[in-house]
Amino acid sequence: MAAQTTPATEGVRRQDPVGPSAITFVVCAAAFVAMLDVFVVNVAFTDIGADFGVRLADLSWVLNAYAIVYAALLIPAGRLADRYGRKPAFLAGLALFTAASAACSLAPQLWWLVFFRGIQAIGAAVLTPAGLGLLLTTLPETRRAGAVRIWATTSSFAAAVGPVVGGGLVELSWRWVFLINIPVGVAAFVVARRLLPDLRDASAVRMPDPLGTAALVVAFGALSLGLVKGQEWAWTGTATLATFAVAAVGIAVFVVRILRHPAPVVDPALFRTPEFVWANITVLTFCTAFGAVFPSVVLWLEGPAGYSTLVTGLAIAPGPLMVPLFAIVGRHLATRVGAGALVAAGNLLFAGGAVLLAASASADPRYATQILPGWLVIGVGIGLAMPVMLSRATTELPGAQAATGSAVVNTSRQLGYVLGVAILVAVLGTAGSAPDPAPTFRHAWWFIAATAAGSAVAALGITRRTRS
């Protein structure tokens, strides 16, 4: 199929006889399987370590390799998708992710698994901005905001079913948590190859700045590495400070290159839009809280509460199940209140739920009275905030920079997750040896509450220029 450079709506009319809903479904299915893998692997973590007989510091690279590579490559992958076509990038990323999932399931030892997890992350980094860019350029303007909300809600729904699915699969073998990706990935690839139109930026005739690209990859890779290993290396240790120094230099080089190069990795004009800047700040702080709250509750249930993996998965599910329900409520409220106010309200509910967790934590954990109420409130807040927040951050991006701009948003999102987990690990570092871990978990939940409240303040900078 020849690449088209017609406006997005024309591309849909010519090539999409099934309609925008089919495009949304295909893109969201791929996003679902990529996000599902993150939460399922978290549940399988202990079993992988027992099978390979490795120490925790080495085992952590099963998660770290994915987080670091994914964060580092999102923006360059989005820029290349804008340049060479979002459909080819989407298909390539989906194929690579699916193939790497099969390889992970066959890994003979730990470091092969870590290597294949890195390949998975490359596929996800290509897939994510290309898929969101397709939604922003192939759908009619009136359908884009709704499609992005569905895309965002899909990620949260994966968080709901991931622990449950993972807990069941781990009972068979941890290798099944990777095998589950294969049928979904293959089906999505076949349907996407047939349905998705191939639209690309006709004005992008030059290769994105290779030096700026390299500087960005090094910067985000070093920053992510420092965050995920800071607790192990010591936050003021030489290795940690060195990685942060490398990240600072890389970011400085990247900024200079985007201001001076004729084909920058990211058009600096994107950052001259206050709404886009505030949306990214909101996403970063929100996802810092979001990235910390899930593992904090899992650790509380599997630690002080003494739940099994499967029971923990079932106990986790009610909170995330609130997300799609209240995403629908948020969609209706968005027509009556400003986007910034709605996102702020959702974040305040998120913060309130974390306060409930902190206030009710005790040496005698009780799920129904101490965990469930705050967990449900957190799910409600996420459902109101996340879809609208990501929609406002992306739906008004210029069509030629749809994948790149969405990659910037998703990089903020991923760095927030990494930062949240890193801070959580630092706060909970002594909980395992303490006779009463409740005070340590309270500190973690107060941190999450404060961060979500900070995101609520930042959300007020998201102005509402068009009706959602």
Set out the fold topology.
Elements: H1 8-15, H2 20-52, H3 56-59, H4 61-84, H5 86-105, H6 110-138, H7 141-172, H8 176-179, H9 181-195, H10 210-233, H11 238-260, H12 274-302, H13 309-316, H14 318-333, H15 339-360, H16 367-394, H17 402-427, H18 438-459
Helix pairs in contact: 2-6, 2-7, 2-9, 4-5, 4-6, 4-10, 4-17, 5-6, 5-9, 6-7, 6-17, 7-13, 7-14, 7-16, 10-11, 10-17, 12-13, 12-16, 12-17, 12-18, 14-16, 15-16, 15-18, 17-18
Number of domains: 3
According to CATH, what is the class of the largest domain?
A: Mainly Alpha
Give the tally of β-strands.
0
CATH architecture of the largest domain: Up-down Bundle
Number of helices: 18
User: Strand share of the residues?
Assistant: under 5%
Structural class: mainly alpha
Q: Would you identify the CATH H-level superfamily of the largest domain?
A: MFS general substrate transporter like domains
User: Can you tell me the residue ranges where pLDDT is under 50 for at least 5 consecutive residues?
Assistant: 1-18, 464-468
Shape: globular
Give the distance, in angstroms, between the N- and C-terminal Cα atoms: 34 Å
Mean pLDDT: 83
What is the C-alpha radius of gyration, as a whole number of Å? 21 Å
The name of the CATH topology of the largest domain is Growth Hormone, Chain: A
SSE succession: HHHHHHHHHHHHHHHHHH
Helix content, binned percent: over 70%
Largest sheet: none
